[in-house]
C-alpha cells in the first residue's frame, strides 16, 4: 500500500467536515460509507491497515464536536448572560493598536462572579479600549463583561468564533479595568521580546510602508501593514508574499544551509542546525498554520537529506495536515490553511501537466510553471475569500519571482543584524526597500490592464467543486495520454464549456436575503436584477450591506426602495451609490419642501440616479414575475409588498402600532422590526395575514413573542438567533437557510 498516511489524513478530514455539517442519521450513513470504502481499499491493495480508516473518520467527527463544544457549562452560562466578572490570569500574547488600545490573550486560572471564586482554566480575548501596556508574561487581574465569540451573522462576514477558537481562545471580554503585576518569564516571553525588538529594528531602518510589509512577511505582524499597499498587492495577485508560507520558510532554510556550507560545516550538523533554526523561527512568528505546515514539510525534506531518503510531497502534506488538525480541528476552516495546502497541492499535482502544454525554454519554464500551477489551484479560494480573481497575478508572480528569495533572505538578515548594530542593518535594509518599491511599481502598472482583476464575488460550493473537477480532469488527460498537449487542451476546453453551460444557462431561483443589521431593514432581492430594500443607518451600509455586495460580486443595483427617509438612511444610501452603480431610488412619502429631500435629490442626480416618491398603492414591476408595491407610505415611512409569482412578502419596515391594528394584509412571509411587535397583537396580526413565516428584524428579540408566533404555526426567524436569513423560491416552493 503506497502512501497510507495520505488515506488516513483524508478520512480524518472528511470526518471533520461531516462533524461540522451533518447530524443524526446522516453521520451513521457517512460512517457506513467510510466502512465500505475501507473494505474496497483492503480488497484492492490487500492492506490490513485499511480498517483503521473508519476509525480516523470517527475520530474526526469527535474532534470537531469537542472543538466547538462549550469549554465549561458554568462559563457558558455566564457568557450567554454577558455577566460582569473578574479574572485572574497570565498574558500569553499581546497586540497593540492606535490610541493605546490593546488586545490581550489571557490564560485564566481563576474567575470571580458575585463574590464567588472558582479555579477554572480557560483562555479569553481581552479588548482594552483605554491606555494599557500589558506585556506577555505578566500576571493580570481584569474586570469586564464575559461574552461568547460571535459566529458570522451575514454571508462572508468575519467569523470571530473560527478565528479565535483556532488560536485557543474560548471567550472574549471587554475590559473595564486591568491591573498588571509581576512578570513570569518562559519561552513565550523570550520569543515575544525578541520579536518586539525586531519590530523596533525594522521601524528604525526602513520607511513605514516598507517596515510594515517586512514585519508582515517575516514576523507575521499585520497591524502595521499599509491598507492601500495590501489592497494593491491583492489586486496584483501577489498578496501571498505578505503571509509566512512555505516559500518564505524554504528560502530561509536554504539561506541557513548555504551559510553553514560556506562556513564549511559538515553535512549532519548543518542539517541539524537548520532543523533547529526552523523550529526557532516557527516559534518566533507565533506558529501560525501556514508556518507550521511549511516547517513540517521543510523538516521532512531535511530529514530525507540526513537519512538519504527521497521525500514524498503528498506524505509530507498529509503529515503536516494531521499535525495541525489533530490539535486544532477548526483550522480546516481558515483561509490560511486552505490557501497554503491547496497551493502546495496544486504545485505537486499539476506542474507536469502545465509543463506538457507550455512550449518554453527550460529555464523560463522553471519560473513560469510554478506560478501558473499555484495560481490555477487557488483561483477559487481567492474568489471565495477576497471576492476577486487576479488574472494578472500569473504574470506579476513571474516578474517578482527572481527577487523574492533576496527580499526574504536579506530582509531577515537586516532584522537580525539590527539587534546588534542599527547602522549596519540600515545599510543592509536598502536592498529590501528598493525591492518592495519595485514590487509596488510593477503591481500599479499591472492592475490597469484590461481584465487584470475580475470582481467575482464568492463562488458557490457547486461551482468550486466543478472547477476542481475540471482541473483534475485536465491533469489526468495531460499525464495519461501520449499526445499530452492536444488531449489536455481538448479535455480542459470541454470541461470549461460544461462549467459555463451548467452555471450560465441553468435558471437560478429567486432569492431574498434578509441581512442582519441589528435593528433596521436591509433586504436584497436577486433575480436577473439586484434590488435593495433599505431603512437602516449609515454604518449598516458600510459594515454590512456593502460587504455583502462585494461577496456576491454585485457591481450594479437596479433599484433601491427606502422604507425610511431620515438623515442617517440617506447618508448610507449615497455612500452605497458611490460603491456600486445604482439606477433608481424609490422614497416613502416626504413633504415637497423638506430640505433633506432637496439635498438628497441633488446628490442623487449628480450620480445619474432617478429619484421617485412611492405613494400608497403604487406598484413597480420588474418583468412578469416580480412586483413591488407600497401598501403604506406616509410620514417618511413605507410598508412594501413584494410579490414573486403567487408568493407575497410584506416588508413592515419601521411603522407604528396603528398600522398593524388598522390595516390587515395578506402575505406568505412578513419582515417585522422591533416597534411593531407586541406579543398577542403581533401573533394575531401574523395569523390573520395567513403568513407561513416571520423574519424578526431586531437585536433584542422577546422570547415570548417568538413562542407565540410558533404557537400559531408560524416559522419565526430572529436575526439575533439566526443571523441573516435567506429565502429561495423555486416555482411556488420556499426553501429557507440561516447563518446558524
Summed up:
The chain has 740 residues and is α/β, with parallel strands linked by helices.
Description:
- This protein is an alpha/beta fold and 740 residues long.
- The chain has 4 domains: 65 residues; 112 residues, Beta Barrel (OB fold (Dihydrolipoamide Acetyltransferase, E2P)); 207 residues, no CATH class; 229 residues, Metallo-beta-lactamase, Chain A (4-Layer Sandwich).
- It is 52% helix and 20% strand.
- The chain has 26 helices and 23 strands.
- The strands form 4 sheets. The protein has an 8-stranded mixed β-sheet with strand order 14-13-12-11-10-9-22-23, with helices on one face. A 7-stranded mixed β-sheet has the order 15-16-17-18-19-20-21. It has a 5-stranded mixed β-barrel with strand order 1-2-4-6-5.
- Helix 2 runs antiparallel to helix 3, helix 6 runs antiparallel to helix 7 and helix 9 packs across helix 15.
- The model has no long low-confidence stretch (mean pLDDT 85).
Amino acid at each position: 500500500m503506497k502512501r497510507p498516511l495520505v488515506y488516513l489524513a483524508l478520512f480524518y478530514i472528511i470526518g471533520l467536515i461531516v462533524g461540522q455539517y451533518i447530524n443524526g442519521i446522516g453521520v451513521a450513513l457517512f460512517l457506513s460509507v467510510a466502512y465500505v470504502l475501507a473494505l474496497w481499499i483492503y480488497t484492492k491493495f490487500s492492506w490490513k491497515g485499511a480498517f483503521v480508516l473508519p476509525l480516523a473518520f470517527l475520530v474526526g467527527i469527535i474532534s470537531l464536536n469537542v472543538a466547538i463544544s462549550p469549554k465549561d457549562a458554568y462559563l457558558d452560562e455566564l457568557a450567554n448572560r454577558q455577566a460582569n466578572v473578574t479574572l485572574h490570569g497570565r498574558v500569553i500574547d499581546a497586540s497593540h493598536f492606535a490610541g493605546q488600545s490593546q488586545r490581550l490573550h489571557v490564560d485564566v486560572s481563576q474567575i470571580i462572579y458575585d463574590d464567588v471564586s472558582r479555579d477554572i482554566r480557560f483562555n479569553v480575548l481581552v479588548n482594552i479600549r483605554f491606555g494599557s501596556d500589558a506585556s506577555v508574561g505578566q500576571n493580570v487581574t481584569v474586570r469586564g463583561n464575559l461574552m461568547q465569540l460571535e459566529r458570522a451573522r451575514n454571508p462572508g462576514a468575519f467569523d470571530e468564533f473560527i478565528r479565535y477558537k483556532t488560536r485557543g481562545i474560548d471567550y472574549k471580554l471587554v475590559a473595564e479595568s486591568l491591573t498588571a503585576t509581576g512578570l513570569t518569564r518562559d519561552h513565550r516571553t523570550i520569543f515575544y521580546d525578541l520579536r518586539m525588538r525586531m519590530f523596533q529594528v525594522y521601524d528604525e531602518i526602513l520607511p513605514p510602508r516598507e517596515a510594515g510589509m517586512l514585519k508582515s512577511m517575516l514576523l507575521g505582524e499585520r497591524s502595521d501593514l499599509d491598507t492601500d499597499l495590501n489592497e494593491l498587492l491583492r489586486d496584483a495577485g501577489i498578496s501571498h508574499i505578505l503571509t509566512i508560507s512555505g516559500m518564505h520558510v524554504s528560502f530561509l532554510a536554504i539561506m541557513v544551509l548555504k551559510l553553514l556550507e560556506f562556513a564549511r560545516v559538515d553535512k549532519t550538523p548543518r542539517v541539524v542546525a537548520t532543523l533547529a533554526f526552523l523550529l526557532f523561527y516557527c516559534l518566533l512568528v507565533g506558529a501560525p498554520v501556514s508556518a507550521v505546515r511549511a516547517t513540517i514539510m521543510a523538516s521532512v525534506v531535511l530529514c530525507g537529506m540526513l537519512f538519504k531518503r527521497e521525500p514524498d510531497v503528498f506524505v509530507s502534506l498529509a503529515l503536516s495536515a494531521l499535525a495541525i488538525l489533530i490539535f486544532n480541528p477548526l483550522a480546516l476552516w481558515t483561509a490560511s490553511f486552505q490557501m497554503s495546502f491547496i497551493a502546495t497541492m496544486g504545485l505537486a499535482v499539476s506542474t507536469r501537466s502545465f509543463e506538457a502544454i507550455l512550449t518554453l525554454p527550460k529555464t523560463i519554464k522553471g519560473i513560469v510553471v510554478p506560478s501558473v500551477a499555484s495560481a490555477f489551484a487557488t483561483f477559487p479560494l481567492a474568489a471565495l475569500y477576497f471576492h476577486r480573481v487576479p488574472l494578472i497575478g500569473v504574470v506579476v508572480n513571474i516578474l517578482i519571482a527572481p527577487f523574492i528569495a533576496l527580499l526574504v533572505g536579506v530582509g531577515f538578515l537586516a532584522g537580525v543584524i539590527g539587534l546588534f548594530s542599527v547602522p549596519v542593518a540600515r545599510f543592509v535594509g536598502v536592498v529590501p526597500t528598493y525591492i518592495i518599491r519595485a514590487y509596488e511599481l510593477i503591481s500599479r502598472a499591472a492592475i490597469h490592464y484590461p481584465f487584470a482583476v475580475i470582481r467575482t464575488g464568492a463562488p458557490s460550493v457547486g461551482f468550486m467543486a466543478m472547477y476542481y473537477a475540471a482541473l483534475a480532469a485536465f491533469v489526468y488527460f495531460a499525464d495519461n495520454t501520449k499526445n499530452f498537449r492536444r488531449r489536455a487542451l481538448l479535455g480542459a476546453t470541454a470541461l470549461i464549456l460544461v462549467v459555463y453551460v451548467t452555471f450560465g444557462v441553468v435558471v437560478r431561483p429567486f432569492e431574498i436575503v434578509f441581512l442582519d443589521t441589528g435593528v433596521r431593514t436591509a433586504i436584497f432581492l436577486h433575480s436577473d436584477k439586484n434590488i435593495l430594500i433599505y431603512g437602516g443607518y449609515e454604518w449598516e451600509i458600510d459594515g454590512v450591506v456593502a460587504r455583502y455586495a462585494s461577496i456576491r460580486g454585485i457591481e450594479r443595483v437596479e433599484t433601491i426602495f427606502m422604507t425610511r427617509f431620515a438623515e442617517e438612511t440617506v447618508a448610507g444610501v449615497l455612500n452605497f451609490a458611490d460603491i456600486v452603480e445604482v439606477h433608481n431610488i424609490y422614497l416613502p412619502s416626504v413633504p415637497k419642501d423638506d430640505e433633506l429631500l432637496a439635498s438628497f435629490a441633488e446628490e442623487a442626480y449628480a450620480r445619474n440616479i432617478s429619484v421617485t416618491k412611492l405613494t400608497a398603492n403604487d406598484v413597480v414591476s420588474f418583468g412578469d414575475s416580480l412586483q413591488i408595491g407600497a401598501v403604506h407610505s406616509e410620514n417618511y415611512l413605507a410598508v412594501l409588498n413584494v410579490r414573486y409569482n403567487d408568493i407575497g412578502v410584506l416588508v413592515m419596515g419601521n411603522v407604528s402600532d396603528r398600522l398593524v391594528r388598522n390595516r390587515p394584509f395578506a402575505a406568505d412571509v412578513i419582515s417585522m422590526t422591533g416597534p411593531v411587535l407586541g406579543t398577542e397583537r403581533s401573533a394575531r396580526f401574523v395569523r390573520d395575514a395567513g403568513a407561513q413565516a416571520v423574519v424578526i428584524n431586531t437585536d433584542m428579540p422577546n422570547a415570548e413573542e417568538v413562542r407565540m408566533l410558533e404557537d400559531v404555526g408560524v416559522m419565526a426567524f430572529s436575526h439575533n438567533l439566526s443571523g441573516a436569513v435567506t429565502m429561495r423560491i423555486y416555482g411556488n416552493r420556499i426553501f429557507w437557510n440561516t447563518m446558524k
